[in-house]
Amino acid sequence: MPATPVYIICSPRPQVGKTLLARLLAEFLLLKNGNVAAFDVNLKEPSLLDYLPGVTETADVIDTYGKMQLMDRVIVDDGIAKVIDLGFHAFDEFFKMTDEIGLLKEAARRHVAPQILFVADTDRASTRAHEMLRGQIPRMNLITVDNEYVVRGELPAAMAGGRLLRLPALPGFLKTYIDRLNFSFTGYLRQEKDASTELHQWTRRNYLAFRELELSLILQRS
Fold first, then answer.
1. How many CB atoms lie within 10 A of CB 146?
2. In percent, how much of the chain has pLDDT > 70?
3. How far apart are CA 21 and CA 7, in angstroms?
4. What is the C-alpha separation between 35 and 141, in angstroms, rounded?
5. pLDDT (tens digit, 9 = 90+) per residue, 136-172?
6. What's the mean pLDDT when you consider all of the chain?
7. According to the lineage, what is the superkingdom (predicted)?
8. Which letter does DSSP use for residue 118 in this model?
9. Mean pLDDT of 75-103
10. How many Å apart are CA 65 and CA 41, to the nearest integer?
11. Distance (Å, rounded) from C-alpha 22 to C-alpha 30?
C-alpha cells in the first residue's frame, strides 16, 4: 500500500451492522496481510473486542487523554491497516475532535489514508450525520455503506451520490449463526468445502468488495 489505511466504521445509530462490518473487514485484512490493528470504541457487548480479542484493543474518546491515545496509535505509518469500530455514542465527539485537530491533513502528512465508512440508515439522525460528514470529509475519503439488512429499499438520495459499499442481507437464521462469539468468517471459508452455500458466497463477495476498496485507495494515491 502507498499509505497505511485507517478504516473508521461509524454511525450515529445503534443496531445498523457496524460491528459486523468491522469484524468482516478486520478478518479480511488479517487474512490478506497477516496482521491488523483494531480499536473498539463501544459501550455495549458483544463488541469487536469479544469477537476478535487477539487483534483488538479498547479505546475511548470521552476525554482528551483517550482521544490522544487513540490518535497516537492510529495515525502512524507502520504498514499495519487499522480498523476503528466507533460506537454510536461517540460519533459526535469523535468527528468534532477530527475536525478540530485537522485529522485528514495530519494523516496525509504522516502518510496515512483514513477511510470513513458510514453505515447508512433512513432516520433523521443518520441524514444529519451524513450531511455533516460530507461537509467535513472529502468525497474520496467518505464511503456510504448500504447494509441491505437495515436499509430495505433505496438509500436516501443524499447518501446515494458518493462512493458506496453494499453489504448484502443475510437470512435471519444465518445472521444468528454468524453472531456467535466463536464464529470466524475466514475460518468458515477454509472449513466449508461447498463454495455454493449462501454464507460462503456472501463472505467471499464482501471480501472481494474490500479488495476493490483497497485497489481504489491505491489508485487514489498513485
1. 17
2. 98
3. 11
4. 23
5. 999 999 999 999 989 888 888 889 888 999 999 999 8
6. 93
7. Bacteria
8. E
9. 94
10. 14
11. 12
Q: Is the pLDDT of residue 131 over 90?
A: yes
Nearest to 70 by CA among 60, 78, 55, 80: 60
Cell of 89: 455514542
Contact between 127 and 13 (Cβ < 8 Å): no
Structural domains of the chain sorted by starting position, each given as residue range(s) with its CATH number in brackets: 4-220 (3.40.50.300)
Bridge partners of 82? 6, 37
Half-sphere exposure of 106 (CA within 13 A, CB side): 13
Judge whether 37 and 18 are in contact, CB under 8 Å: no
219 φ/ψ angles, rounded to the nearest 5 degrees:
-65, -35
pLDDT tens per residue across span 14-44? 999 999 999 999 999 999 999 999 999 998 7
Question: pTM of the full predicted structure?
Answer: 0.95
Q: Are 133 and 142 in contact (CB under 8 A)?
A: yes
Alpha helices in 137-171 (DSSP H): none
Residue with cell 455503506: 145
Please name the residue ranges forming H helices in the chain. Answer: 18-33, 48-51, 64-74, 91-101, 103-109, 124-136, 172-178, 185-191, 198-221
For residue 159, give the DSSP letter: G
